[in-house]
Structures are given as C-alpha cells and as structure tokens.
Amino acid sequence: MANRITLNGTSYHGKGAVNSIVDEARAHGWKKAFVCSDPDLVKFKVTSKVTDLLDKAGLAYESYSDIKPNPPVENVKHGVESFKRAQADYIIAIGGGSSMDTAKAVGIIINNPEFSDVLSLEGVAPTKKPSVPIIAVPTTAGTAAEVTINYVITDRQKKRKFVCVDVHDIPVIACVDPDMMMSMPQKLCASTGMDALTHAIEGYITKGAWEMTDMMHLKAVEIIGKWLRLSVKGDAKAREEMALGQYIAGMGFSNVGLGIDHSMAHTLSAFYDTPHGVACAILLPTIMEYNADYSGEKYREIARVMGVADVDSMDAAAYRKAACDAVRRLSIDVGIPRNLTGIVNEQDIDQLADCAMKDACTPGNPRDPSKKDIVELFKSLL
User: Phi first, then psi: what are they for 30, rounded to 5°?
Assistant: First the structure.
C-alpha cells in the first residue's frame, strides 16, 4: 500500500508570520472571515494581534469566542449556527487545539451539511467536499492542529472524546508565529510542549511509521528535547524553536497516527476535563516503557537526540531505559505531575479502559494492548 502525506497548501513560519493573513485573504478573494478564538485569548488581547491587521486592511470579519476547552458537541452546533448567521466565506482559527478543532468541525459541516451531526464524523470521515477555507494561527506550541487532518470533540453525554480523521479538514494556510505564543503561562507552555513530544514519539514508533515521517518525528524530538525547558522559562528564542518543533511533529503524526498514550489521555479529558497536554505528559514515560520491546532500535535514536551519551555502546535494554528516563527527566523539569493521583477515581478505571480501547488512536500502538493492560497502566500511575 502506498504511503500518503497531506500537508497545508501554504505555511508561514517565524516572527511576523501573521502579517501574511491579509495578503492571503486578498489573493484568494475571500470576503468575510469568521474568527474563532477562545475567551481568554480575546481577554488578553492575543486575538487582537490578528483582528487589528484585518481592521487596518479594511477586511470584514465576525468574531466567535464561545470556544470551550475540550470542545463538546454542543460547541460545534453553536459554531455552525453562528457561522451561518455571519455569512462568512472563510475561517481564521486562533488558539490551541480547542479553537482549531472547533473551526475544523464547523468548516467541514458547513460544506458537508449531510454530516450536520458531528458525531457522524467520528473515525475516518467519508466527506466529499473540503472544509470552508481555514487560516490557522496557533497560540500554543503543542497540538499542531494547524497542520493535521484530525480534530477531537467531546461527547459529554457519554463522557468520551472522539477523533475525526479527514483530509478535507486541513487548514489551507498555517501562520506559525512565535509572537502569538509569547503570552503562554509556564504551565500551559510545559503541557503543550510535552503534548508535542508525545506526538513526536508516538508517531515515530506507531505501526504506520515510515522513512519520511521518521525523519520528521526524530527532528521534532531533538528540537523539543533541547528547547522545552528554556521555553517554559519564557526564552523568546526557545519559544520560536518550539513553534517549529511542534509543527514538524504534526507534519508526521497527522499522516501515520498515534498510540495508546493519546487514547488514554482522551478518556482523562472526557471524564475529568484534564488538560490534554497534562494527561499526555503524565502517561508518556510509562507508555514508553510499555512499548519499549516493540520499538526496534528507535529508542536508541530518541535517547541520542535527547542528549544521552554513548548510546552506541548500550544494549537494547539500556538504551530503551535511557530514552524513557530522558523523557521522564524532561517532564519533571518542566513541572508535570508524576502520576494521576488526584485526577483519576479508581472506581472509574474499568470504564476508562473501555473508552481507551475504542479510541481511534489505539490500533496504531506498536504493541497491541488488552483491556487488562490498559487497566494496569492506569493503576500503575495512581
């Protein structure tokens, strides 16, 4: 079977990348933007870094800020109604995964109204038409939703998150501007950065991985391992490097999938509203240990790019342990909790495991898990 790579048609990287929005909107002949951004970004005038450009250029737009963390089905429905009222013809999504996932779902449903119930888009979505054009402007260095063909929505009624996979939802333009990320508080910077590392590592060892995505994922691990600690401290150069690293990880995992770290993290967010990056980060070292014997020689390369010395003199057990230890040290250094104490109720674990087993990311895990395995992984972190 042929391997496929789907990426943005155009992406801009570096300081000032958002200035390209005006030129792109004019070049495409778009008339009115539907600006999706969350309330905090509006409050702290991050969103205005883009809307000020639109105002100055005389470009019409309508703002939509009713974006919830871990966006629920109801958020998408309201977004679709608001887009129709706005009579817009393109979307500018400003924010982290929540803003961009909402925007993707809205854009897909507008152009594929037969899927008006977002629940019908779960899994590999059989849509026929591309989304409403989306310009994606990330404000966190983690989700890479600006370059992926995935979005994740929460079904609150059933306490689960579901993944929608659709080549038609990828933003046509990404503007990855580190200046949009400078206002991230330390905890958000840490958790989204560890989410990006999880993308890179899971994508590197997933069953679907191949040479081109290996190249992307390993480079992303290298960048994140080198720069995340400084980024959390607010270093401007580090924030710029992390903006690139998380995007490169997204280029890869979007095309080959992830594994059970994300399956389990999705259930934690759905049950307890745990921030996605925090959930991924807590799980990552333990899931790496679980998958270690199924990773071939890849953990040696992870350890190498994360700065572990003399990996070529180590046997497989040693370099696999070194890779897991390097990730655990990074996670601790940036302030991620070490376990799920205070997050998970033990009586929920059976249901959490059921949801994780059904998650779209589970089949990509290099080691085929049983429900018992998932239960024991959750318990080991209590």
Answer: -75, 145
Cα gap 151→174, rounded to integer Å: 16
CA angle, residues 114, 162, 379, in degrees to nearest 5? 165
Q: Mark residue 172 as left, alpha or beta (left: phi above 0; alpha: psi -120 to 50; beta: remaining).
A: alpha
Binning the chain into helix, strand and coil, the percentages to the nearest 5 are 60, 10, 30
Q: Please compute, for residue 254, the number of CA atoms within 13 A of its CA located in the half-sphere on the CB side.
A: 26
Is-contact 134 93, C-beta < 8 A? yes
Distances (CA, A) of 30 to 89, 151, 377: 6, 24, 49
- Does 197 have pLDDT greater than 80? yes
Residue 255: both structure tokens together: 């095309």
Mean pLDDT taken over the chain: 97
Question: What is the number of other CB atoms lying within 10 angstroms of the CB of residue 167?
Answer: 14
pTM for the full predicted model: 0.96
- Exposed / middle / buried, residue 95 (Cβ in 10 Å: 0-12, 13-18, 19+): buried
Helix (H) or strand (E) holding 120: none
- Measured CA to CA, the distance from residue 197 to residue 139 in angstroms comes to 17
Name the CA radius of gyration of the chain, rounded: 20
CA distances in angstroms from 354 to 263, 304, 312, 348, 371, listed in the order given:
10, 36, 40, 10, 7
- Give the side-chain half-sphere CA count within 13 A for 193: 35
Q: For residues 358 and 123, is the Cβ–Cβ distance under 8 A?
A: no
Q: Could you count the other beta carbons within 10 Å of the beta carbon of residue 353?
A: 24
3-state secondary structure of 137: strand
Q: Please tell me the distance from the alpha carbon of residue 96 to that of residue 199, in angstroms, as a whole number.
A: 15
**139-193 pLDDT tens trace:** 999 999 999 999 999 999 999 999 999 999 999 999 999 999 999 999 999 999 9
pLDDT tens digits, one per residue of 13-43: 999 999 999 999 999 999 999 999 999 999 9
Structure tokens at 26: 């004019």
CA–CA separation, 65 vs 326, rounded Å?
Answer: 39
The SS3 of residue 85 is: helix
